Amino acid sequence: MPSPAAVVLGVGGLYVAQSVIGGVTFQGLPAVLRKDGASLNEIAFVLLTVLPWSFKFLWAPAIERIRLPAAGGNRSRPVVGVIGAIGVAALVAAALTGPSMLGAVTAALVVGAFASATVDIACDGYAVESLAEKHRGWGNAAQVGGAYLGSAIGGGAFLILIDQLGWRDATLIMAGVLAALGLPFLLSRNPLRPHRSDAERPSLKAAFRRREVWFGIALVGLYVLGQKWAMVLIQPYLVDAGMSLSLIGILNGFVGAGVGIVGALLGGWATKRHGTLPVMMASLLAQVAVTAALSVAAYATWKSDAGLGALAIASSGVMAAGFVALYAELMGRASLDQAGVDFTLFQCADGVVSLIGWQLVGVFGDALGFAWCFGIAAAIGLGVAALLPAVMRG
């Protein structure tokens, strides 16, 4: 069996790498576009790059069949290596186009998102099948903490580099970071867990026959509804409040990464001690409080960099703790014979619900304003908190 430490190190690097592309797309580029005068509706167009993450379940069975061949064995490393190289090339293409060519840079980032989402299928499947139940908390912490660190690099350090070097050089550096983060997994001598040759072939049909999968989809959709809909508003709001790109980059990067990682570790510890539901509820209610505070700040046209920055990083920390608990609940519900397919369905539910909310924000955000949008998101979060215990029992 693979060493738990080597598994966590390898998948941790991949989770960070995947989130670098996400950070560039969902945090870095929106702030750059807003600085150049783009509307929220134009920024929402870029967020279409989340589509591969929303619908990767369509090709997840094919990737799992390649990764886990019928004759037995495990091809996780070749799958990650080939698809990961496509992701690096896509980021290089985005560097050579630039945000002034919105259609071209969006197309490049869609390819990058497709590659990143595909690597995630293999990575999640490998993590679930390689970590025993007692070690899965570390896997969840690597997943969520890695996502925050990658977002900090892509949405934080990236903005600082743009201020200093410009779009092309900053994005090329991100491509190099992406390649380096995949090396611990690709160069590891840790043995891969062999796949049973007599196992049922991975398929969506097999996934949808299982009650645990339907439970997971419903739970993810509900939780994202309460936690994430306001997320896309925060960076443009900070820009409109007069905060510089460098300061936003510092908040997303060094400070945000630290708070997110601490939140993930605390979430893992609290989940082990108290269980998943209490941690998910506490995180959700804390997010409601932060979002309501942002609504009040927007209504009062409050422009304190320190105060608004504190609210932004608090949102990251409490979300990290909640999603560690959520995915700890879901990891045990994925079948070991097709963990990549089952876990992908959970993540696609996350992406679809997020995309719906973000597009609604883009369509109505300019008309309603930040105060109303943050306020509506906080009210939705309260409704989700009321429903969550019943869904968890179901």
From TrEMBL:
Query: What does the record list as coiled-coil region(s)?
Result: none
Q: Which domain of life is it from?
A: Bacteria
Give the residue spans that cross the bilayer.
Answer: 43-59, 79-96, 102-123, 144-166, 172-192, 213-234, 246-267, 279-302, 308-328, 340-361, 367-391
Its organism's taxonomic lineage begins at: Bacteria, Pseudomonadati, Pseudomonadota, Alphaproteobacteria, Hyphomicrobiales
Q: Which Gene3D superfamilies match?
A: MFS general substrate transporter like domains
Under InterPro entries, the record lists: AmpG_permease/AT-1, MFS, MFS_trans_sf
Identify the SUPFAM superfamilies for this entry. MFS general substrate transporter
Q: Which family does it belong to?
A: Belongs to the major facilitator superfamily.
Compartments, record wording: Membrane
The identity of this protein, by name, is MFS transporter
Q: Which organism is it from?
A: Chelatococcus sambhunathii
Q: Kindly state which keywords UniProt assigns to this record, in alphabetical order.
A: Membrane, Transmembrane, Transmembrane helix, Transport
User: What's its membrane topology?
Assistant: Multi-pass membrane protein
Query: Chief location of this protein?
Result: membrane
Is this entry keyworded Magnesium? no
Pfam families given for it? MFS_1 (PF07690)
